């Protein structure tokens, strides 16, 4: 690659600031889990009570000296901050610590780079990395900021830093073009599913809430699932059969996290569009997590950012096996509509209830009944058969066609309106026996 990569181990000292404003506060336990998910060997955790960040180092100069001594004492290769550092703060800290310095965004990007498996996922991660690194290119190139003189080296030209930035811009443009192509292909696939009226159910939720475990339990697939943050990056789609609904596409997506870097939301927009175009969202929640309410709010914040906050949502409280005395159940609103399902994906408890709730929510948009068609509308009859919507056929005493059908209401309206009729004009007085 054309930007400098540091070499070294992964012995890391973690730095966390307490006393931040509530909207900027980070979770120290989650930070520790992030570092471990990245493969770091944590040799020190520094908690710093600070309300007013320093412009030069983010933290005070006294704490900088303490951490510098700890870096040398523990032979650390890396210092990770649980907050966003400006490029200048990162450079200033590296100069003092004489080792790599990484902020929260850089840490998440590194985890994403390790987890991406598909070509599209790798492109999305690389785009986010290059975008992040483009402001940090000065590091390592200060000795090349001036053009060299000497025989054969005089005259017009560009510095190494300028060359590097130009190559970065070219690479970023290439990746964006490729991802645009991927987005177009996804859009075509979505249109195909829409024409076939196959509803899409998308799994969303905080990272490590158990989405992939639930996906595997529902589809009997073998998607990678582990007790670590961001185990899944690449979207996986499977077709399922639901009673009273028919075929359904189930999509597993990347997990969300508190203060998900905007660069990642932008880079993964093509993937996240699977959620924003879904017919139903399954919001998977870790029922055992003490801070689950904060995680729920963060998920809705990201859903709003991608335009999916208005979609029908069913909350799925997972990891019920860790809550003694709580049984699998469906919770409903005042109208009897399912709003919440409690289950354990790992133990397979309550999966039948989830099937039931999904079927009820998706069946709201289905027409299931008997239609009475005049003989002259044989073409309309053929169209119902071509869609696979006919469950049974018969005739009434007057010779009219009786069709027991099951199909989306929007499709029923489209077919009969072509003939200049309304759906209610075809409703049979008697059902087929």
Automatic annotation (TrEMBL):
Keywords, alphabetical: Cytoplasm, GTP-binding, Magnesium, Metal-binding, Nucleotide-binding
Residues binding Mg(2+): 212, 232
Superkingdom, taxonomy of origin: Bacteria
PROSITE patterns in alphabetical order: G_HFLX
One annotated GO molecular function: ribosome binding
One term under GO cellular component: cytoplasm
Cofactor(s) needed by this chain: Mg(2+)
Keyword Methyltransferase among UniProt keywords: no
Stretches assigned to the Hflx-type G domain: 199-366
InterPro entries: EFG_III/V, G_HFLX_dom, GTP-bd, GTP-bd_M, GTPase_HflX, GTPase_HflX_N, GTPase_HflX_N_sf, P-loop_NTPase
Chief location bin: cytoplasm
Location of this chain's protein in the cell: Cytoplasm
Keyword Magnesium (UniProt): yes
Pfam families documented for this protein: GTP-bdg_M, GTP-bdg_N, MMR_HSR1
Family in the record: Belongs to the TRAFAC class OBG-HflX-like GTPase superfamily. HflX GTPase family.
Assembly: Monomer. Associates with the 50S ribosomal subunit.
Biological role stated in the UniProt entry: GTPase that associates with the 50S ribosomal subunit and may have a role during protein synthesis or ribosome biogenesis.
Name of the protein in its database record: GTPase HflX
Gene behind the chain: hflX
């Amino acid at each position: 690659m054309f930007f400098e990569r540091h070499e070294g181990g992964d012995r890391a000292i973690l730095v966390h600031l307490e006393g931040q404003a509530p909207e900027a506060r980070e979770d120290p336990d989650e930070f520790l889990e992030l570092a471990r998910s990245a493969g770091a060997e944590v040799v020190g955790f520094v908690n710093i009570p600070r309300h007013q960040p320093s412009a030069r180092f983010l933290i005070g100069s006294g704490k900088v000296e303490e951490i510098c001594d700890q870096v040398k004492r523990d032979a650390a290769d890396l210092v990770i901050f649980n907050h966003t550092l400006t490029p200048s703060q990162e450079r200033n800290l590296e100069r003092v610590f004489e080792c790599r310095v990484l902020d929260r965004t850089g840490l998440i990007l590194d985890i994403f780079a390790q987890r991406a498996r598909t070509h599209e996922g790798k492109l999305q991660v690389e785009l986010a990395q290059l975008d992040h690194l483009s402001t940090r290119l000065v590091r390592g190139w200060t000795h090349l900021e001036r053009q060299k003189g000497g025989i054969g080296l005089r005259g017009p030209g560009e510095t190494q830093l300028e060359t590097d930035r130009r190559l970065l811009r070219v690479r970023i443009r290439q990746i964006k073009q490729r991802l645009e192509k991927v987005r177009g292909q996804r859009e075509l696939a979505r249109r195909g599913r829409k024409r076939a009226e196959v509803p899409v159910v998308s799994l969303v939720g905080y990272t490590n809430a158990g989405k992939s475990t639930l996906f595997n339990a529902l589809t009997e697939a073998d998607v990678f699932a582990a007790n670590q943050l961001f185990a899944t990056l690449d979207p996986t789609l499977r077709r399922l059969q639901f009673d009273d609904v028919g075929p359904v596409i189930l999509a597993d997506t990347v997990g969300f996290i508190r203060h998900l870097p905007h660069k990642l939301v932008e880079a993964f927009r093509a993937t996240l569009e699977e959620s924003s175009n879904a017919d139903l969202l399954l919001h998977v929640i870790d029922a055992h997590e003490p801070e689950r309410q904060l995680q729920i709010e963060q998920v809705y914040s990201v859903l709003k950012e991608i335009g999916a906050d208005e979609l029908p949502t069913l909350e799925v409280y997972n990891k019920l096996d860790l809550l003694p005395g709580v049984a699998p159940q469906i919770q409903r609103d005042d109208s009897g509509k399912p709003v919440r399902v409690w289950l354990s994906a790992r133990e397979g408890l309550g999966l039948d209830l989830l099937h039931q709730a999904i079927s009820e929510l998706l069946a709201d948009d289905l027409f299931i009944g008997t239609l009475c068609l005049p003989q002259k509308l044989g073409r309309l009859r053929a169209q119902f058969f071509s869609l696979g919507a006919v469950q049974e056929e018969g005739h009434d005493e007057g010779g009219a066609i009786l069709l027991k059908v099951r199909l989306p209401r929007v499709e029923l309206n489209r077919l009969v309106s072509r003939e200049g009729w309304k759906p209610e004009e075809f409703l049979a007085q008697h059902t087929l026996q």
